[in-house]
């Protein structure tokens, strides 16, 4: 596409949407949020908490507006790999190198349940939309499903015996996706419990997956420095986003679907905000001194937070948001 056509399309986009790209301004900074690197972050609905998971074995819950520490969740014996919040914002699931899955009450900051999983069975984990199921990737290539009430594994879907590093549950509950160390992405239809698509395109490990709010768009981030946008219904690659100069460690679709935005971060220490309609970068932030493992939006899609190996948390807010 030549530059003139590209510019004309951009003008049409602005005229049609009556919007200009949103600028996200750095706001709250916590340079010593943890005693060691931060491996994941999440932002809860209703309870308005930013949750950070660290190599220092702890999970910390911060006020989403002020950045003040609300409470510390302790109990994992080793570094905390991932955290995910239930759709209503009241529960948190965490996974750790210690092979424990822990379920927490975010309203009171207490442990609800802990259940063991072998080292091969659990890596990163996500809640189902109704918070009744926890899905997790595994070292042996299975995508495992755990019943929250029973605290035990109830199902396992095999792939190709390659480490499933990342998982995602579509907001409508129809699809579960798993990203593997060899670059493949497996999408299962949960209505039929069958493999719907094997998505190709990445040349290296897929470390991050995120469904857009339409449940039809899947976004992936890989060690090959690329971000892919897939049409899950048809199993097709829609676009490739390039701009990171190292591993892409986390991707998060803006929950406000009208904005058509994506946030990403990586080993290049950068945070990028993308316009999915234009398939281009809106802005790049270089505020961390080490690789950035996690990024998360607030439920309204007006703010985001990032966590890094430099032990810090950084907040950003769109211009005009309170």
From TrEMBL:
Signal peptide: none annotated. InterPro entries: SKI8, WD40/YVTN_repeat-like_dom_sf, WD40_PAC1, WD40_repeat_CS, WD40_repeat_dom_sf, WD40_rpt. Transmembrane segments: none annotated. It comes from Mucor flavus. WD repeats lie at residues 31-72, 73-114, 157-198, 199-240, 241-284, 285-322. It comes from the Eukaryota. It holds the Pfam family WD40. Keywords: Repeat, WD repeat. SMART domains: WD40. This is WD40 repeat-like protein. CDD domains: WD40 (cd00200).
